[in-house]
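Input/output pair, single chain:
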Amino acid sequence: MVGLASAQTFGQITGRVLDASGGVLPGASITVTNPQTGVAATEEANTAGVYVFPNLLPGTYNVKVELQGFQSAVRNSVELQTQQTVRLDFSLAIGTIEETVEIVGSSPMINTEDAAIGTVIDNRRIVDLPLNGRNFLQLVSLTPNVSASFADPGQSGTRQGGDRSAQQLSISGGRREWNYYTLDGMNNTDVNFNSYVLLPSIDALQEFKIQSGIYSAEFGRGIGQVNVTTKSGTNAYHGTVWEFLRNNKLDALPYAFGVDTPKSSPFRWNQFGFTLGGPVRIPHLIDGRNKLFFMGNYEGFRLRNQKETLFSVPSAAMRRGDFSERSATIRDPLTNAPFPGNTIPVSRLSPISLALLDYYPLPNQPTLGLANNFLAVNRNRTDKDQINVRADFTESSKSSWYGRYGWTDEGQFTGGIRLNGGTVATRAQQALIDNTRVLSASLVNEMRFGYNRFFNTAGTELNNVMDPIAAVGIPLPTKVPPDAWGLPSIGIAGFSGFGPDSNSPYINRNQNWQFTENLSWNRGSHFVKTGADLRLDHYNQDGNQFARGSAGFNNNVATGYGFADFMIGYLGTWSYASGLAVARLTAFSQSYYISDTWKLRPNLTITSGLRYEFTPPWTDTSERQITAVIPLNTPQPQVADLSLHPVLVRAGTGDFYENAGIRFSPDIQVARDGRLGDRLIKADYTNFAPRFGAAWSVTPKTVLRAGVGRFFVQDIGNIAFDMNRNLQGRLTVQSTSTNLISTWTDPFNFGGGNPCSTPAGVLCVVRPLVLTSNIDRKTPYVDEWETSVQQEFTSDMALEVSYLGSRGRRLQRWINLANQPVPGTSSIVSRSPFPEFGLFQGAANVGYSRYNALGLKVTRRYSNGLTVLGSYTYSKSTDNGSGIRTLGTDPLNPQNSYCLSCEDGPSVFDQRHRFVTSAVYDLPFGHGRKYLSEGVVGKVVGGWKLNSIVTIGSGFPLTVSAGEDTANIGNCCRPDRVAGVSTALDNPTVSRWFNTAAYSRAAAGAFGSAGRSEVIGPGIINWDFSTSKELQISATNYIQLRFEAFNFLNHPNWGDPNTTFNSVAFGTINSTRTEMRQLQFGLKLVF
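Output:
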């Protein structure tokens, strides 16, 4: 049985066997052989003369057709790619079976079997094209309908597992969370943020395919499918050993935005590893040739870099309370009189603040003022190790197996101002086993079982090391757990803050079990597939925001100067959550499908299918999840009828505050009476996804295709975890110049006493932020439609022109679900509908999207030493929110949750024009090539290869924010847009990228009139180039010397401009989107 593979990685060879007059020849014997493994499979043509080999591993095959009374026909070197259907029709002439006719020709370049839009990135492109970091997912952007590197991931960054957050890919107008990754047919997508689990070394890969539209009902859970296939062993032992290196001595200097010449910081980058594959052979015991093969891979990565950063810190005198050098008058908050000599008496200095100064550095740079007076030299590091092992076993002509185990261990450290460096540790494992079995001449069954384990911790360098909060004596109601140890986040007006980001720690221990069953049935002119995919997810996360607290010291609260407030211990703001949220979430998802490929006529194929997906809401086995039942969503202030006020509902039954270290204020209604069942969110049972397509071969070299389909997408699991954070409470205490209530010694003073009458060790939570979700949640979906024309110009070159459109509905996004006040100048509480609550940050199915794109793709298959893949996309993507989290300048919440149509605008990832072309060219000199294949000259000038990726794209949309809450609602706003004034400039520069005069400050107590995504950022022009020289050792062994240049032309691709209206840097650019030229050298032994 020739290399059968899983559904997501298979290729298929099909066709008809006819006689010379066009009559069908049932009973003809068709044999497919993989010459690299020697494994073969045989099928018989059915009554319609049709044969199908449905589940073949990608590779090269020889096909032979035999029937008594006819000459045999052979077609060799048939290339089969991932998820490709190759049609090979045979016409047999009368004669003897011993006579063989060899048919010369390549595999078809056009797809005549379905309407799916997709691109295969083959092994040659994966290993030869220049890849910074050897990350094959960078090659996804070679295809049409893909937008890449469009925005910073925001608050979800490190919580996705290190570099996973940097993989910003939008496929066919979909959000970055809507990509579904598979590896050898198995789920390779983590439930937290739908990022990938394992990223195998490129030397371990055979190829991968990007499916971007109207694909089979066999596939689901996303809009973009990225299906990766690893290499398997062959009858010969093959392997590679490599080392790639980069350092700052090779790279260009950063771009100089100011008058000073940038410095080169120490940087060391090493990537190394090996692969080895072949038959399993143990003398006198096992001879695996033609039967049992293995492939193993290891890759390591080490990065060391030093980064110098300037910070602004208070002077030594100011740290003693002496502000005589400052022009600001420091007032005593108890009397409002100035401190004599602008110096705070030692007796009035806060002991806690003095202790915290041990973590806040003194100036170390000679400057005229306080700006940029401390230089921090941070030594950052990243270590990664990964292993992948695969085995393939042909049990018999009717059954084959393969299995794989993958493991990765990753660690990152990024330094900060002092003892507040960030750490990310990730360990993932994956295992699968797959069996494909021929049940009869027309039935083939595939069964697969897989397991994923994804552990990730994002925190700070003091986690589990020391507890400075206890050491300095900040009185918290409960002890900070060791996983969250570290400083509070401290912000001081006019200075660089200290303490780590308050958005940590987060600890994930996620597991996934998957069982897949696929059955293929070939009957007459129909090829039917049906199957099921069952998966059990365990999503276990501990973490929280503000678990250590976050303090802000402003210039308009106590003394009139932020750092003076810090020194006497008066807090302007204090945000806190009681400890770490704990979530133990499970979900059992089910998908079923049936699809039919009907060869209606020799030149017309109709495909149809129906997929059903059931992804239930998460069940919290710890019963710590809380949501809100909201009877009324209204801007009406101070709703009097308490029956219309929200009720916080906890999972399970019994005491609402079981195992909780908080109490909500008495005016908040709570319940734990089982009113919402085992899950707090209702299940959606209506997820039927029909697919329909047609492919019409107008001529043997021209095919017209069209199709429509519905595709359901999966919400990120992190939204469910947020509802577990409610049990820890989250509050903010706000002081004013007339209401100084919060101090280091009593940060939870709300004024007027404790409204909860809570005992020691229990936090009273007043006006909490509530994280909730629609109880009647629906699964988001996207409807797609497409038409395309493919033209084969030569046996190795084809053009595809396509139109793809889509409409997304019921998309999740954050809104202020129930408590957004109308704008005004009076207190927020007086205008809130439900004044006992703060913000209701709710995930609701209120998002929508639209996408229209013209795509062009030119493919030249490798021949005469050259392969080319070029694409151009002209597209427009719009929505009312491009993600569930912050993404670039897209805010977390809309400006006005009662006017979501006001958020309608271009998507964050909308890139109107994108052109990408790649080429691999083996110069025709040297061993095995056209010229100078022998001799000394051939050895010198031969063996060279040139590789290139050129990217040209327009800029991405940006939203201008006010930088202040002009509407006075608590989480806002945008400025006003000046009527009749365009945001675009004829000659934009880094000092003025867009017309800042197009915006003005909104009136106090009013929303700004500016829209979302009005400014277009800088585009990109980039050329990555590499060349290599092969030094031949023997016929199959050689050493490759490799040189790679990323941004070869050293072209500055500007970063996004500052879009904060009240910033002094509004409209200016001070960064680049891509690094300036980086050089990499590599050495590889191939044997």
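The chain has a mean pLDDT of 92. The chain has eight helices and 56 strands.
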